């Protein structure tokens, strides 16, 4: 509207100054609008979590500063079908990772009741995966994991239940997913661990952490997963 | 004659009052068991069996099968105290897992949680008190 008004008054010499002023105003307003549009875009983008470090690199003869984000390193575990699962199984997928064990009667049933909602929501979506690591490296054999997955009603390879050595799983949990896990003889089931659901993007970067025992947090995770998928659609 | 009538009236009113009091005493007792039972349920059972007794897929049986809870009512105390292993059929689905024992629970707490479960999630079986629990635990085969 503003712009059309200023154009209407353009032909007269006396209003030239005014026109220029209005044009500047218009420019200013459209700049503001663009900025507002930009900022609402960034609001919809999920943050990148974890440690980061700036690195200098040379692009087209110029030195630019780039940021290296914390990523999930290569791993190799055995899943419920006794197959090897590595980071390559999650190529081109965003995924949710968590830590549990099949005989756990504390938070795990609540977590997986909630994770089932995530599974149902993104079922058969080839861009989405779920990766549950058991922390009971002695008792949870692939056959135990298989029986657990079957009873939970999980088919296909979208939701992987994996086991590894104590060292590999515990280190990955604490150093890379930032989830605390530990053996504890005093705990009722023999382990203590946190119930975080960690959202990882296709570049293996951490994009969110959600309390897997809370329905509202898991609803937020589902919303955020959709936002994250859109991020890759734009590219 | 008139005095007699008044006396009869007085007696019947008192009897009604006493009955009413009994009734509310029993209701109060039920409410007490139910409320305690809810708290114990939330602390010891809800993780697996769910906040509305829905269970979890084929891992943990739901508590909404009213006929299972009725037919097995005398077993419930025993199951809670000593745990349960092996296949059972609930809501027409077979469950073959292991329920941990809650042997640290006092009889009165077991009675409370049974009162809660058998009067929630679509069940309506009334009060199950500590005397019921003691009797059922004595007959426990597990």
UniProtKB/TrEMBL annotation, chain B:
SUPFAM superfamilies (alphabetical): Cytochrome c
Keyword Metal-binding on entry: yes
Entries under Pfam families matching the protein: Cytochrom_C
Protein name: C-type cytochrome
Domain Cytochrome c: 32-121
Keywords: Heme, Iron, Metal-binding
InterPro entries, A to Z: Cyt_c-like_dom, Cyt_c-like_dom_sf, Cytochrome_c-type_DH
């Amino acid at each position: 509207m503003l712009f059309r008004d200023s154009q209407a008054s353009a032909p007269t010499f006396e209003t030239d100054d005014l026109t220029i002023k209005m044009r500047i105003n218009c420019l200013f307003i459209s700049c503001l609008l663009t900025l507002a549009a930009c900022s609402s875009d960034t609001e919809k983008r999920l943050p990148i979590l974890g440690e980061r470090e700036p690195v200098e690199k040379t692009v087209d003869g110029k030195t630019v500063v780039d940021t290296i984000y914390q990523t999930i390193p290569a791993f190799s575990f055995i899943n419920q079908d006794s197959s090897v699962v590595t980071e390559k199984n999650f190529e081109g997928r965003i995924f949710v990772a968590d830590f549990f064990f099949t005989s756990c009667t504390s938070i795990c049933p609540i977590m997986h009741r909630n994770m089932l909602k995530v599974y149902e929501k993104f079922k058969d979506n080839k861009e989405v995966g779920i990766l549950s690591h058991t922390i009971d490296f002695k008792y949870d054999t692939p056959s135990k994991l298989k029986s657990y997955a079957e009873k939970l009603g999980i088919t296909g390879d979208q939701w992987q239940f994996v086991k590894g050595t104590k060292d590999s799983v515990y280190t990955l949990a604490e150093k890379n997913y930032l989830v605390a896990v530990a053996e504890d003889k005093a705990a009722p089931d023999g382990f203590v661990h946190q119930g975080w659901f960690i959202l990882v993007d296709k570049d293996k970067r951490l994009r969110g952490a959600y309390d897997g025992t809370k329905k509202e947090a898991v609803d937020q995770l589902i919303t955020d997963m959709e936002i994250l998928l859109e991020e890759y659609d734009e590219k | 004659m008139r005095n007699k009538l008044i006396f009869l009236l007085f007696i019947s009113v008192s009897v009604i009052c006493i009955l009413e009091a009994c009734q509310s005493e029993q209701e109060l007792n039920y409410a007490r068991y139910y409320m305690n039972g809810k708290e114990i349920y939330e602390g010891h059972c809800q993780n697996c069996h769910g906040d509305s007794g829905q269970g979890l897929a084929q891992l943990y049986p739901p508590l909404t099968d009213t006929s299972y809870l009725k037919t097995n009512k005398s077993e419930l105390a025993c199951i809670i105290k000593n745990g349960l292993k092996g296949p059972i059929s609930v809501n027409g689905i077979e469950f073959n897992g292991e329920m941990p024992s809650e042997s640290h629970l006092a009889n009165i707490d077991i009675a409370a949680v049974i009162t809660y479960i058998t009067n929630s999630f679509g069940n309506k079986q009334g009060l199950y008190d500590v005397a019921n629990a003691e009797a059922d635990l004595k007959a426990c085969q597990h």
